[in-house]
Amino acid sequence: MRVFLSVGLVLALATGVAQPGAVTPNIPDTPAGHALVGWLRAFDSGDRATFLAFLRSKYPSGVQRIDEDMQFRQMTGGFVVREIMTSAPTRLVATVEDQNDEQFATMIVVTESAAPYVIARVSLRAIATPAQFAPPAMSRSDLLAALDSKVETETSAGGFAGAVLVAKDGQAIFARAYGQADREHNIANTLETRFRMGSMNKMFTAVATLQLAAAGKINLDAPLGTYLPDYPNKDVAMHVTIAELLDHTGGTGDIFGPQFDARRLELQSLQDYEKLYGSRGPAFTPGSKWDYSNYGFVLLGLVIEKVTGQSYYDYVREHVYAPAGMTSTGSEPENEAVAGRSVGYTLDPNGKLVPNTDTLPYRGTPAGGGYSTVGDLLKFANALQQNKLLDARYTEMLTTGKVDTPNGSRYAYGFEDQRFNGVRCFGHGGGAPGMNGELEICPENGYVVTVLANLDPPAATGIENFVMARLPKT
Question: What CATH number should be reported for the domain whose range is 140-202+325-470?
Fold first, then answer.
């Protein structure tokens, strides 16, 4: 799962192809219709000055988010209207598709009720690909040929660098690397290249937590304070349960923002994060809603440490990576040399690719930031399905959706549970400047798809979505 903020709402990106800037001919001749056309043309232009001029004239309250929205434009490639759902003079609901990773969304445009009908609100919410726009499933051979062509095209255009693996019944049937791991030293990516993978660490943290629950050492329904009795905020300690941390319903918030940016390299242990954010109360009544929380998974790491007497990193290495046979996965500090770890590249404000060094945390955490290879992620998927990490009951508990998310999927415990063309799959993605990764495990048809990239999102997400939208049902 990839999560970004744009035009004031969280857009969780999921799975479609059209012409950037194109608008369907049936846009209503209404104030809301005109607003939709104007916003799309300005946004899709990708030109900051053009978009800013439109906002100042037609959507003044949107000016404050221009930096965020221009980053979002870079990630999405712009939107195309596919269908008008409902229309009233000052409110219009449309189905739109982004151009970089075949993502569909519901777009709502609302204007003021009187001339000059300035825009009051623009919102986007990701949805599963509507059936009428879904590409047909392909045969295995056709899909793999189309995949290679797609990735080669994206690589040549500068939109992808990384590795792609597709497996069937536990065995890789497609595994290739593209682009460069280190542009300064002209080092190519290989299947052994270790890529930072953002939030994909959450899967390992969730497995570790459920291992300890299966062993009777953690009660998923117990409040956090059961295991961290000295936790600073008593509301969080007394009312947020372990299960609510696992499925993002605890209201424990994020770790990223100005505080993180100011102390990025000082946050070296999980306790450092607790000291920085531990006094913060829950953002809402725990259990009442879903809200993606990186800090919640840092807290799970602290619980793992308290219960086991080991560091989070040692526990996961011994109880998740080792039994799965994962020898190229970890979260070593960024100032330590890690053989084969790629350089992440992000676009600066001038559109130039630069190393993401100045954005990286001291090291990965239970919430994300570790590194892996596509081969290791296949080993993880196989071990999970073969009940080498958890027994069948706890594996089902781990991966079965518990709560609806804004993108139409259901979140389980550190895994997202969703359907692609009717086929149930589970996994997790991750993204940050200079890194993007995805893993989907589909027990119903025996496929595993994983993509890792050392570029900004949606480099990997777009490739994964291309495959998942066309995956054979058997």
Answer: 3.40.710.10
